[in-house]
Amino acid sequence: MTTTTKTTTRLDVPKTYKLFIGGAFPRSESGRVTEVRDGEGRFVANVAKASRKDAREAVRAARKAQPGWAGATAYNRGQVLYRVAEVLEGRKAQFVDELQRTEGLSAARARAQVEEAIDLWVWHAGWTDKIAQVAGSANPVAGPYFNISVPEPTGVVAIVAPQSQGLLGLTSVVAPALVMGNAVVVIPAASSPLVAISLAEVLATSDLPGGVVNVLTGDPAELAPWLASHADVNALDLTGAGDLDWVALEVAAADTLKRVIRPEPGIAPETPQRILALTETKTVWHTKSRM
Amino acid sequence: MAFLDYAPAPESTSILSLREDYRLWIGGEWVTGGGEPFASVSPSTEQQIATFAYADEGDVDAAVRAARAAFRDVWGPMSGRDRGKFLFRIARILQERARELAVAESLDNGKPIRETRDADIPLVAQWFFHCAGWADKLDHLGLGAAPRPHGVAAQVIPWNFPLLMLAWKVAPALAAGNTVVLKPAETTPLTAMLFAEVCEQAGLPAGVVNLVTGDGATGAALVRHPDVDKVAFTGSTAVGREIAKALAGTDKKLTLELGGKGANIVFDDAPLDQAIEGIVDGIFFNQGQVCCAGSRLLVQENVHDAVMDRLKERMATLRVGDPLDKNTDVGAINSSEQLERITRLVDRGVAEGGEAWSPACELPQEGYWFAPTVITGVEASSTIAREEIFGPVLSVLTFRTPDEAIAKANNTPYGLSAGIWSDKGSRVLAIADKLRAGVVWTNTFNKFDPASPFGGYKESGYGREGGVQGMQAYLKAGER
């Protein structure tokens, strides 16, 4: 808080907005920050500006955390995502405040965005133990074989979040990636870095293992190419990359045949297709020919 | 206390704050029943726990009317997202109050606290959590866009898993948008009353869930009520048959989860240590009062003696006694009527040539107890190979070939569960294909999960609970 009111003379203790990598909150190794000012030009924060090396650290942390998260039971993952919604609900006022300052929203519209984001976490929490039943199959092959197909997480997903509605946009791309057990490196909207780091604090206190989500505040145009060409990233979600040279990013991603989600105008749609786009289908054959 | 005996480790009942008398829960109000209140006793001590209101036909009618009003005015019009939020709240409160519910369940039912604490109550919470997530995803259940709930669901549940059966019934019904009138079993109404408190804490709108305690006549009035749209019953095949007849020709939808006589098939290549544990779990979990119990052990002839030796050795280590003791493996039989039935069937089995064996164990003086029992030399035609005992009694038959095992396993009017123990994957899957049973466990037994459909073939009933199939039972296709 940078404002004081007439009723108190107490001086606020403003927060330092740092990156979120491997469950910790480091500054950028580059030492760079971006100054954030509110709609009236008042100073709000110096937000860490991530570098290529930070992105590399984030991918390393995501890779390390991913098997554990994917190995948790679907029920457990669902409870963790629901816990995110619970913790977010309790910190609603903070997010409303941050959105008002960075996006210039009215209190009502800021609250509406936060509430929609909370509900979107709940919606995704419900998918963890259902998507395999909806999208998986028992396959009637022409022979004495047990044959089933199940969706599995693709691995590490790098995301350029929607550039509008910072909290809702971020939720709309991060939550679907987490449902089945991917780990995420996300570049939040450049215009809304505060809610991104505050959401990271929520994730850090919701039993989500460290490294499953990594948040790189900074310049998407600078960071996205490094993630697109990184050999240890499995999928690239360009939902919020419409204003970047996203075709070049898709070309770079093709080097290691990353799965690519192309840009969407506005907020990513609420559909299980987004969850499934970040999965691999595994088919298991087992003979039943010999009794 | 002898060497290696266990000191008593009873779970405290101080976590409970029970009322002396419970009423019916209708339209969000606690109301007096029209009939004479009845008592529920703790089967391990025969001490009265509390009295419960008896719902007569008028009370059942009031409950159905409350459910109808809630369906019409509140729950039906509510968004799936909001229904889901109520169910998530219920799931969380159940988790918060899990220990209290576990103690209450063990007290009222007689099953060991180890089971209520580690199996029943965690599954109850999981069931609500799982179904909560379905409430706003009904379009993905394969019924087309915007499927619709039936309306008022009448649900009658048994005494063997009182709160878990409530969860299996209530959670999918509410997620789909139905409202509920539920009748708990006469001998185990306690945790349903605590569930009403959970609903109150969750702020669930009045009338969405209504609870009517009573006996078989109460249940009969409920399922026959003309304004009920959907009936779900778990209990005996005899009562299920009566309900199916009563509902024939009506518009009511019906699902039944009835008796079983599960075959647990052990091949000579089975991992024997795990198989012994699976056999014990299959028949002594919840004192064998489980519809899907592995009550018929089919063991390959060449390993029969080895399996029996090891099984008896293992049974000798089972601790029978105080359900609230954390070391107890086998608790009390739920009622004197059930104890009488088990005793009668075991006597019959012995009279027909079976050889019964139980480990030496001292049974408490008060309460209803039956020592874990295995009966060998049972013929396929024997009463105890055909009739459901619903007690800690394992009937042992032998087989020589896989085909013989399949024939014997399927030689029953029931078809709820089966188990297969073998290290050969091909064999396990080939045999699973040929078993006429709704749930087949391989190299495990008595596993339950809200994502996994459960239910029977043949006279074990119809309809499934759990997963997509379980949700479908509470929905019909949307209007085109």
From TrEMBL, chain A:
GO molecular function annotation: oxidoreductase activity
Keywords (A to Z) from UniProt: Oxidoreductase
Tell me which SUPFAM superfamilies the record gives.
ALDH-like
Q: What InterPro entries does its record include?
A: Ald_DH/histidinol_DH, Ald_DH_N, Aldehyde_DH_dom
Ranges where the Aldehyde dehydrogenase domain occurs: 30-260
Q: What is this protein called?
A: Aldehyde dehydrogenase domain-containing protein
Lineage of origin: Bacteria, Bacillati, Actinomycetota, Actinomycetes, Micrococcales
UniProtKB/TrEMBL annotation, chain B:
Keyword check for Oxidoreductase: yes
Q: Which UniProt keywords apply?
A: Oxidoreductase
Coiled coil regions in record: none
Every Aldehyde dehydrogenase domain range: 30-476
Q: Name one GO molecular function term.
A: oxidoreductase activity, acting on the aldehyde or oxo group of donors, NAD or NADP as acceptor
Protein family according to the UniProt entry? Belongs to the aldehyde dehydrogenase family.
> By what name is this protein known?
Aldehyde dehydrogenase domain-containing protein
Q: What is the lineage of its organism?
A: Bacteria, Bacillati, Actinomycetota, Actinomycetes, Micrococcales
